[in-house]
UniProtKB/TrEMBL annotation:
This is Uncharacterized protein. Gene3D superfamilies: 1.10.10.1650, 2.30.30.730. InterPro entries: BVU_3817-like_C_sf (IPR049281), BVU_3817_N_sf (IPR049282), DUF5606 (IPR041218), DUF6852 (IPR049280). It holds the Pfam family DUF6852. It comes from the Bacteria.
């Protein structure tokens, strides 16, 4: 699952894809059908990358990516508008060691909403590029002969005509107003 560049913005519903960064913030595009674009100001908006979000666990935190993987393999995923008891039972199945005192029903609804947004996108079935690079076996390296490219000859600046060169060296003389005799 490739969630790189997918973010959640505080105060904005849904998920966003980070397109670029400028001086004041990030340029984001919504993942819905409207493809709304906005600039999220760094100083006022809180932006959280989905691949870095974790849920509170009993012993250690649970990565959201792992929860999404278990949700993908689950037989049935409840609607985000289901009652808290159904959501809690489902989360006991997909995140069995989550901390039930710290993970609220609103958190579970948010996770289910995010899952419903990204489950049909192609990035949901893509491999994570950070783990794919680590899993690839390193090719057998043969000693390669590297030839250094010839260094280009240093070009000299064209010589300036004598009048211009002398004019640059000599300081410009300022004319003083003539003093009046009384």
């Amino acid at each position: 699952m490739n969630l790189l560049g997918i973010v959640a913005v505080s105060g904005k519903p849904g998920l966003w894809k980070a397109l670029a960064q400028n001086k004041t913030g990030y340029i984001l595009e919504s993942l819905d059908v409207l493809k709304t674009k906005m600039v999220a100001n760094i100083s006022t908006a809180k932006i959280a990358a989905l691949n870095e979000i974790t849920l509170f666990g009993e012993d250690e935190d649970i990565k959201l990516v792992d929860v999404f993987e278990r949700m993908k393999n689950s037989a049935s995923v409840p609607d985000a508008k289901a009652d808290g008891k159904k959501l809690r039972d489902f989360f006991r199945e997909v995140a069995p060691d989550h901390d039930e005192e710290k993970v609220y029903a609103s958190d579970m609804k948010k996770v289910l909403n995010w899952y419903s947004i990204i489950k049909d996108l192609p990035l949901f079935t893509e491999a994570d590029p950070t783990t794919a690079v680590a899993e690839e076996p390193a090719p057998a390296e043969e000693p390669a002969v590297v030839e250094e490219p010839a260094k280009p000859a240093a070009k000299k600046a064209p010589a300036k005509p004598a009048k211009e060169a002398d004019a640059e060296k000599a300081p410009a003389k300022a004319k003083k107003p003539a003093a009046k005799k009384a």
